[in-house]
Amino acid sequence: SLFIDSQAPDRRGVVLADDMGLGKTRQILVHLGLLIEQGRLRQGSSANVDTPPWRPILIIAPLILIEEETWQQEMRKCFAMDG
Q: Which one of 14, 21, 65, 83 is at 20 to 30 Å from 72 when CA atoms are compared?
């Protein structure tokens, strides 16, 4: 997460590409968790309950990671499911 921040501190996007099995999924989830905790993805102060608390996040990943629920498994490991 520190590496990603140091490479793109003021950018709105990042591409993380490497060989399979080197921890990209975990690294990006940890980074997103840090950004959320720091309030850096906050959408603004909206009283509308239908508005999500942070700006949209687009993640492009191979279909196999979704089909095998790799992302879901890693999210359960990284985040508390109750918010």
A: 14
